[in-house]
Request: fold
Amino acid sequence: MKKTIFNTPIISPFVRLLSNTAMRLSGWRVEGKLPDFPKYLIIGAPHTSNWDFLLFVAVIFKLKANVRYMGKAELFRGPFAWFFYWCGGIPVDRKKSTGLVEQMVDAYTRSERFVLTIAPEGTRYQVKEWKRGFYHIAKAAGVPIVMAKVDGKGKVMRVGQVYHLTDDIETDMREIQGAFSGLSGIQPKAKKYITLQG
Reply:
């Protein structure tokens, strides 16, 4: 298995200790656990703050998971490319003839174990409809979706609810997005309303 910040000996336990301490001091806790599947896709919402990323990293360390995220290909070139790879990054080249979905499906296919994380809203703004890229990736790769719900009011990250996709995208999207209904995120007042699809 490829070494990342989440599974590097000595360094990972140390960072896990720091992140667990930070969560405890800030009052945040984790409820639930991730499934023991070799491959799945995690969606995290609501996305209301840049702090969401740090919270999610802390949760991943808490759960001792090894995950990947998508990043633009330019980040993975030059002297600091190793760092983004080490943090679990997967370069996505939007200039390639194959699209983002195909590139991620290929990453799933080439790996025995692969967990991808995505913020389905695609923005910190309030949206009517989530972007559907995560859905198309999970459907094409044949993997289930696992939910990570940010409850800013209770300072809880709830993880582990599994959703197996059907052949009805509209129903699936409605049920998945509805599972996050009523959650406030870290900074709910920072949300502004826009319409977003695609």
Summary: Confidence is low (pLDDT under 50) at residues 191-198. DSSP finds six helices and nine strands in the chain. The first strand starts at residue 29 and ends at 31.
